[in-house]
Structures are given as C-alpha cells and as structure tokens.
Amino acid sequence: MTKNKKVLLIGLSVLVLLFSAAWQVSASQTLNIVDSSGREVTLDIPVERVVALTSESFDVIRSLGALDTVVGANKYVVEDELLYPGCSGYTNLGSSFSVDYEALIETAPQVVFTYTSSPTDILEKLDGTGIEVVRFNFNKMSSYGDEVAKTGQILGREEEAQQLIDFYEGYTGTIEETVATLEQKPKVYLEADFGGGKNYVTCGEGHGHHELLAAAGGDNIFIEVNGSKEIDPEAVIALDPEIIVKYRYPAPAGLGMAIDDIGGLEAIRQEILDRPELQNVTAVKNEQVYVLTWDSTRGAARYFLALGYMAKWFHPELFGNLDPRATYQDYLNRYQGVDIDLDEQGVFVYPEP
After folding, report:
1. Gap between the Cα atoms of 150 and 41, Å rounded
2. Which of 8, 148, 260, 331 is 20 to 30 A (C-alpha) from 340?
3. What is the CATH number of domain 181-350?
4. What are the beta bridge partners of residue 171?
5. ∠ CA 307-218-192, rounded to 5°
6. Average pLDDT for consecutive 10-residue bins of the chain (353 residues)?
7. Boundaries of every domain in the chain
C-alpha cells in the first residue's frame, strides 16, 4: 500500500469516527416519542425533573427506580402514607383534572405525565414554559407495555422498564394464553360505580375495565358500549348474564383494612342479589355476583388483582392455583418498595375465591 493510500485511509477513518461521535452526541440530546394521545413529543434528554399528575405514572417511575427525578405529584400520592410512604414532601399539585398550575410551574419540571383524558388546556397553560406534556395512561392492557418502554427511554431506565414489562407479561400472558382457545366463555355484566352512586352503568370496548374482563376470559354482554354508559335494567334482564361483577369507587374496603373486614363488600353484593328486577337473571339465581373495589384496580393492582380474581371467578377450573394476592405482594415488594403484609391487611374483592 502506498503512503498516499495509507494517509487517505487514515483520514477517512478519522472522519468516520468524528461523524459517529457527532451523531451519538446529537442522538443523546433529543428523544422523539409519540404518546398515547397520538401526539409527537420532542424531549431534551437526559430528563432529570418530572411531575407525575397520575398515580399510575408515579407507580411506573417508582418501579423503574427513578424517584430521584420526581419534583411534584398528585394529591393521591402525597396524601397516602400507606401506599406512598415518604412521599408527603413532594409538592402537592392537586389532580390530573384539577391542577395547581402555579405550583407545577414553580417545580420547574422538564416533563409532566398525565392521562390522555386529562383536560387539553394543560397544553395551553404550560405553553411557553419549556415544560413538555406526555400523556400515558398505564391503565389499559393494550398500551401498558409500550408506555412503560417509552417511559424507560425518557428516564434513561430502559433495562428496568424491560424487567417490569417481563414481570407484567409473565403474569398477564399466562392468563390470556389460557383463555384464548376457549370456545365458551361466561356472559358477564360489569356494573361500574365510579363515584356517582348510580346502578346500571357499564363499560364496553375502549374502556380499561372491559379489557380486563375480556383478558380474564369473560364475554362482556355490553361490549358494544363505547367507554362507559348508563343502560336500561331491561337490557341486563334480556341478555341474562351468567356472572355479575360490580366495580365500586369509593368502597368500604381498601389496602389498609384488616383482611377479614368484609362487611361493607358483603352489603354491596347483597344489594344486587336483592334487586327485584334481577331475580330471574341467571347470575342472581346462582349467586354468581362479585365485587371489585378501587384498590383492586389501582395502579398496577388492576393487572395482578382485578384481572387475576376475575379469571378465578370466570374459570375456577383453570385458575385454581392462581394467587393474585401473592403476585401483587411480590410487585409491591420488588417494584414499589412498600412494606405491606397482604396476609394481614388489604380488602380488594368479595367474595375472594
């Protein structure tokens, strides 16, 4: 090889290295993601200051070992010493639907996590502040893994995010794979009280509760409902569900209650069993009526508690050995770092199989 060729090759190698280094520097400065609202967001990275306006986003951040990035949280995190010990010092920013914007801006976050359903005026309120809004729900099985993975990218915790996804999919995947080939699934009426005290409100396609019901191997009699909707009792009677599941928020139950303190949930179930108009419905005649509480669907609990218990209610012959409480205990210990003994406390569903 001639001297000139050697010089040329060395020069080209240097240029390649310089170009590669420049590309890596550029790539490390910004991150483009599409959030769950379909909005493209460009973030300056590394992201070192975030606000969690939802409990679900806080849970994921905690699972990824990134609490050092949190500078503000919603009231449900700040005010709950049981599930969120040591978090009372975070700036209390209200809720995702009633935000204290003055306090939020003062915390100077780079990124704010909120729901896709949160008011859109958050973009207007934060316009010109340099604060980016990322809308992730973390409450639907269809998008949970993708949202966790993207949060891992945002926070520079890709490995931790994959570990959480593997844990989640290892549990939920077992249930989904087991029911996927079933030719017959029980007809289920899901009644949801989100705090208004109304009966005969249900959830259909597009709602996270429907996704849980379907993944557990139930046939939602109101699948055609978009989101949630009040329905006619006569429609329930006509469709004759084999199982009724009642979701209740708030409920006389919870994480902090003694494990045998079930009187409040018994009363909720009995109210359904006693409804005169439902006496000829198969689920009532066979006493296949169950109660889910907010705590069973709170954060990742929905994937370990609500999903698991519904699977056991719908298909007891297939999931006799499934232990939702033990899996949730593992999640709390391993990913949330919370010292709660679920053998002693926590009322989530009724009756517990």
Report:
1. 11
2. 148
3. 3.40.50.1980
4. none
5. 70
6. 46 42 52 97 96 98 98 97 96 96 98 95 95 97 96 98 98 97 96 95 96 98 97 98 97 93 97 98 98 94 97 97 97 96 96 95
7. 29-164, 181-350
Angle at 9 between CA 4 and CA 13, to 5 degrees: 150
**Amino acid letter at 250?**
P
Count Cβ atoms below 10 Å from residue 4 Cβ, excluding itself: 8
* 3-class secondary structure per residue, 159-190: HHHHHHHHHHHHHHHHHHHHHHCCCCCCEEEE
Rounded distance, CA 227 to CA 244, Å?
A: 18
Residues 6+ positions from 216 with CB-CB distance below 8 Å: 175, 179, 307, 308, 310, 311, 313, 314, 315
* H-assigned helices in the chain: 3-27, 55-63, 75-78, 101-107, 121-125, 141-155, 158-180, 208-215, 233-239, 263-273, 282-285, 301, 307-314, 324-331
Per CATH, which fold does 29-164 belong to?
Rossmann fold (3.40.50)
Q: What is the CA radius of gyration of the chain?
A: 24
pLDDT attached to residue 120: 87
Helix (H, G, I), strand (E, B) or coil at 311: helix
3-class SS shares of the chain: helix, strand, coil, % to 5? 45, 20, 35
- Tokens encoding 242: 């084999």
Q: Give residues with Cβ within 8 angstroms of 195, minimum separation 6.
A: 249, 250
